[in-house]
Amino acid sequence: MYLRRALKLLSSGLLTPVGKTPPPTCAALRRGLVLSARRRTPELSSFVARTNTCGELRSSHLGQEVTLCGWIQYRRQNIFLVLRDFHGLVQVIIPQDESAASVRKILCEAPVESVVQVSGTVISRPPGQENPKMPTGEIEVKVKTAELLNSCKKLPFEIKDFVKKTENLRLQYRYLDLRSFQMQQNLRLRSQMVMKMREYLCNLHGFVDIETPTLFKKTPGGAKEFVVPSREPGKFYSLPQSPQQFKQLLMVGGLDRYFQVARCYRDEGSRPDRQPEFTQIDIEMSFVDQTGIQRLIEGLLQYAWPKDKDPVAVPFPSMTFAEALSTYGTDKPDTRFGMKIIDISDVFRNTKIGILQDVLNKPQGTIKAICIPEGTKYLKRKDIETIRKFAAEQFNQEVLPVFLKTNSNWNSPVAKSIMEEQTLELIRLLEPQEEDVILLTAGEHTKTCSLLGKLRLECADLLEARGMVLRDPALFSFLWVVDFPLFLPKEESPGELESAHHPFTAPHPSDIHLLYSAPEKVRSQHYDLVLNGSEIGGGSIRIHSAELQHYVLAAILKEDVKMLSHLLQALDCGAPPHGGIALGLDRLMCLVTGAASIRDVIAFPKSFRGHDLMSNAPDHIPAEELEIYHIQVSRPTDSAAKKDSVTHSPQPEC
Amino acid sequence: MYLRRALKLLSSGLLTPVGKTPPPTCAALRRGLVLSARRRTPELSSFVARTNTCGELRSSHLGQEVTLCGWIQYRRQNIFLVLRDFHGLVQVIIPQDESAASVRKILCEAPVESVVQVSGTVISRPPGQENPKMPTGEIEVKVKTAELLNSCKKLPFEIKDFVKKTENLRLQYRYLDLRSFQMQQNLRLRSQMVMKMREYLCNLHGFVDIETPTLFKKTPGGAKEFVVPSREPGKFYSLPQSPQQFKQLLMVGGLDRYFQVARCYRDEGSRPDRQPEFTQIDIEMSFVDQTGIQRLIEGLLQYAWPKDKDPVAVPFPSMTFAEALSTYGTDKPDTRFGMKIIDISDVFRNTKIGILQDVLNKPQGTIKAICIPEGTKYLKRKDIETIRKFAAEQFNQEVLPVFLKTNSNWNSPVAKSIMEEQTLELIRLLEPQEEDVILLTAGEHTKTCSLLGKLRLECADLLEARGMVLRDPALFSFLWVVDFPLFLPKEESPGELESAHHPFTAPHPSDIHLLYSAPEKVRSQHYDLVLNGSEIGGGSIRIHSAELQHYVLAAILKEDVKMLSHLLQALDCGAPPHGGIALGLDRLMCLVTGAASIRDVIAFPKSFRGHDLMSNAPDHIPAEELEIYHIQVSRPTDSAAKKDSVTHSPQPEC
Predict the structure, then answer these.
(1) B150/A545 touch (CB, cutoff 8 Å), yes or no
(2) What is the value of pTM for the model shown?
(3) Contact B23/B88 with Cβ under 8 angstroms?
(4) Span B304-318, pLDDT tens digits
(5) CA within 20 to 30 Å of A107's CA: A189, A416, B292, B323, which one?
(6) How far is CA B60 from CA B38, B56, B195, in A?
(7) Which of residues 563-602 of A touch B (CB under 8 A)?
(8) Which parts of B345-464 are beta strand (E)?
């Protein structure tokens, strides 16, 4: 099963040799033809000097006079030259006769990665010299004229996919890194998928693409918002984390189907695999419920999904937050594999093992386990020690491993204390196979789930690193997680509540009565979209009653309502019921392309310290240029410097 | 001719009553049908509570059970209720029978602009009660059930197009202003045109939509860039004025057809009809020349142009900068009407009029004129005085009017000094008609052209204000302006040169030799796209040689090349020849929709002082929140305060 899929992936677009897609077009004939709504294959050589791309030439082009523009990939014996453009490689024959001396000089002397323009005839390769590994391998181009468009003077690394570069070097010379096949593929697929999403939203479902401002004002609790000084002393704009307020105001304004591929900003300092600016597919609708948004998004992903992958099956499965937590120990379960958390508390209701008894007597006390397939084979004794140490240190909880040599012979420190009927009940619940390892732990429900959820993922990585096939790399496992709590206790002061997501989220209709008596118990109409264990989207039905919104802000969250007076006023002016969602485009593209990092699906990403390593942004600005903004730099105090500032160091950035 | 066009405009989409476009669809039958690539009409009621929009109901829906969601527009005699959504208006019949008391209560008591959901049957209006002015005027909906979704509590102004509001009020309550027919039309047309542009670029011509960073570093001379403090003491990002550097680096990276609907930033303080953030259609291509870009853009506008307007004729006419200046006195001529500037210097080569003789003896001295059609009829004596005063004060130049009562009787202070052969020659050159006014002035070429260019527009406005039909409101007159100078003398120090556009613009191939001897004479490969006298786009072929770029930056512009070392390095790594363009989307949409201001084609614009009047951005931020950015507010000195700060005042913002 896995092998078949892996082979399929290998033969699919993601790993295809250059030039497989899109299919060849007869560019020369179509040049100048601008309008043709019916054309499905884009014209790649309109308006430019070339007649064809390097990668598109096939036997069907034999005899054609073509002009190509590209980079010199390599040269052999001063006879063969391989020319590259984004579309692929093509072999070019350097003329050897006396009359073509100037052409030969150009093509033989230009350094690798120089840019040339050549014109010539598409001919067959001599029998036996075809290259079946190369999409253009049946033909070559016999050059008549050549022009050196730009000579390549320096090259910090070779433009070959097999040449390994540090990510720092790649980011410093991003313009060269972009020439790699993988970056070309990633950025082109991103563009295509976003275009399909736009078609689905605009053309099929009447959504309106509306740009909202990024120079806005700080939102209550918006601690992670960059500030932008204005020319008015002491006044600042703020770069918003999302167009949340604007999209709700658009609904009040009767623009009842809004979307935007929105640039968002979040200043989190140094965080791996986060970017200070990122992109979300931002959507809002009026007169919609949770199901409506979910069906819309399922259709959107189905429509935009790359054709070379298995189609997306809809509707996506759905799971409550409570179920996700108790079964997977997280609100973003990776449902590509099992190893679910099993509650085995009932087995031990009458146990004589003291520590288990103690736990069960506490509120929310539970005993839970996960079963690791073939764990005795793949996990080493050292792994188990690391796991137990992690549990003790991070969760203050003990994890007991049970090694199943055979079903009747459990090898575990606790085995001897477990009665036979308990063993049978455990086998019924956990369904272990020979050579599995059971990890068992006892403690408070949420904490125990969270611990086992982490161990589940940790063990999955270990098993795969040791060669087990656990997660099908061609599988995209979507999941809706719903019924989140509306509020959570504040971390720094657990007596107070804060929004689990944001203060505009509507309460679950069944729980509205609890808002005034036990707000901590209220579930919300928030929904998350999870793909392969990553949260790729989230949204909610919003509060559309000004009264309710005011109560939530003022009475429950103790926020300064003045900061949001414009939104409260708007809700009082005939705001329709509405809801929406935002998909994280960078994360989604990272999963779709199988990239190692979101930086590989962004043209010019920042390092994890927020630096542009190519241009050296951010940079110093002379004090006099700050004068019009009425700000001056205050050197940080020692303690602040330690806490916040990033010091220059020779360590890698990424 | 004008009348026909004006009538056509009246009957076209721009001024059509609500609900004309798009054509009705049978929403109820299609609900749930998500995928259909062939469908051309968007489904407007998928995924939501309604079965149909208010505006789409016609006789073809008779007998159907429908559910509508909308705003109460008005109510008559507690029997008729007109419901509105973005798509149009529909009349709803409030049931009068006893059993429907609760429905009646809801619909009769809800204030205007409340949001309701009603279900009922589409029926014919009684004979004689049809309303032909209303697209849904043949039918009405007999309501069975109704639900009040949200009651409208307050309303600062009525949501009726004929109710005049100040722009300040409109901006303060933008969410209500957006409900107006015109704002809905403007934003929807903007979304549709941008979508068509994307189809043209992505689907027809293989462009790749690539997002570039907005947190960047200050560019040399980028005095108008907002700064964004980072968490590193003294280091700032900068919000770029355009993705110029990034798009060039993408070309170096082999992404040879880039476009982006790019958010750009420019901090110009208070400027009417400018926005601190704005949007451009940003395009760059490799292996392209000026003609290639021009044909691409002509095709783009032709493809995206609204169907209810006259199609765009291509190719657009082209004019050199020199010709534009000498014929229209500006680099963005409004070519919808004549009144061209005519050089009449030769007529007066042998004149005895001393002041003319003096001017002609100076370098670049010229005598020029424009002829104002029916000026004697439409222009008042006071107008002429204003014109002469303007010329004297702003240009230190005298303007002489000649009133043509009849061809043989010129009424002018200079008439008596003009010899008959000169008069005949003037008539041949200026082709004046009876009742025209000729404005004649003498001075240095550029200044004289500039003055007459301004008077030409001023007089055109005057003529139109007095009732003359000069510019066809249905006419869209595109024009390329080319062959700009590459450098201009610096205003503050005319001995030095600065880039006429930006330092990456390539010199005209015919003028490259002058770069090293007389750079001020070099023409560039810059091109502007002008529509009806407004610049809506500009671009150039770029310098792709590192050596040439270095020479321009260091030797001619005296810039610090270190700031651009990454770009110079990139050009040395095999940069292809490339060029591009950016279209100002806000300005373009303003012209297409005929809006009074670019603020009318932007959902949430800033006031001309850069304020968001709705949320009150920019706003004060507590000093402690600025600490992590190591900045503090410095109160401006008195002189700086006078120069830069904007003081709060009760005056209108816009």
Answers:
(1) yes
(2) 0.91
(3) no
(4) 999 999 999 999 999
(5) B292
(6) 23, 10, 30
(7) 566, 569-577, 602
(8) 365-372, 399-406, 409-411, 437-444
Residue of A nearest to B150 (CA): A574
Q: Can you tell me the distance from the alpha carbon of A311 to that of B366, in angstroms, rounded to the nearest whole number?
A: 73
**pLDDT tens-digit readout, B47-95:** 999 999 999 999 999 999 999 999 999 999 999 999 999 999 999 999 9
Q: B647 to each of A234, A235, A626, A628, B167, how far by Cα in Å?
A: 12, 12, 19, 14, 20
Pairing of strands A208-209, A257-265: parallel
Instruction: Spell out the residues 6+ positions from residue A223 whose beta carbon is closer than 8 angstroms to its own.
Output: B625
CB proximity A100 to B under 8 Å: no
B550 touching A, CB under 8 A?
Answer: no
Nearest to B334 by CA among B590, B532, B471: B532
Return d(Cα A621, Cα A175) in angstroms, integer. 25
DSSP state of B378: H
Average pLDDT value for residue range A519-528: 98
**β-strands A365-372, B115-124: how paired?**
unpaired
Categorize the per-residue pLDDT at A5 as very low, low, confident or very high, splitting at 50, 70 and 90. very low
Nearest CA-CA partner of A569 in B382, B174, B492, B186:
B174
Tokens coding B529: 């796209």
Touching check for B11 and chain A: CB below 8 Å? Answer: no
The identity of residue B28, as a single letter, is: A
Instruction: Round the average pLDDT of chain A to a whole number and report it.
Output: 89
Contact B586, B561 (CB under 8 A): no
Cβ distance B27 to B45 under 8 Å? yes
pLDDT band at B406 (very low <50, low <70, confident <90, very high): low
Residue pair B44/B56 in contact by the 8 Å Cβ criterion: yes
**Could you tell me if A603 and B210 are in contact, meaning their C-beta atoms sit under 8 angstroms apart?**
yes
Find all residues with CB under 8 Å of B87, minimum gap 6, and list them.
B18, B19, B44, B53, B54, B55, B56
The mean-pLDDT minimum among A338-342, A551-555, B222-226, B608-612 falls in B222-226
Whole-number Å distance between alpha carbons of A533 and A458: 13
Residues B622, B618: Cα–Cα separation, whole Å? 13
CA-CA distance, B539 to B205, in Å (whole number)?
Answer: 19
* A546·B153 Cβ contact <8 A: yes
Say how many CA atoms lie within 13 Å of B404 toward its Cβ: 20
Considering only alpha carbons, which residue of chain B is nearest residue A150? Answer: B574
CA dist list (Å): A185 to A196, A242, A301, B259, B574: 16, 28, 19, 16, 20
Hey, is the C-beta of A136 within 8 angstroms of any chain B C-beta? no
Residue A302: which of B35, B234, B246 has the nearest Cβ? Answer: B35
Residues in chain A: 654
- How many beta-carbon contacts under 8 Å exist across A and B? 458
Return d(Cα B618, Cα B615) in angstroms, integer: 9
**Among chain B residues, CA nearest to A187:** B210
In terms of Cα–Cα distance, which of B475, B468, B397 is closest to B436? B468
Mean pLDDT across chain B:
89
A209/B47 Cβ within 8 A = no
Interface membership of A625 toward B (CB under 8 Å): yes
> Rounded to the nearest 5°, which phi and psi values hold at A57?
-70, 135
Chain B residues inside the 8 Å CB shell of A44: 205-206, 257
Contact status, residue A435 vs residue A374, Cβ threshold 8 Å: yes
Please give the radius of gyration of chain A, using alpha carbons only, rounded to the nearest integer.
30
State which residue of chain B sits closest to A226, comparing Cα positions.
B228
Pick the closest to residue A61 from A24, A33, A99, A88 (CA basis). Answer: A24
DSSP B313: P
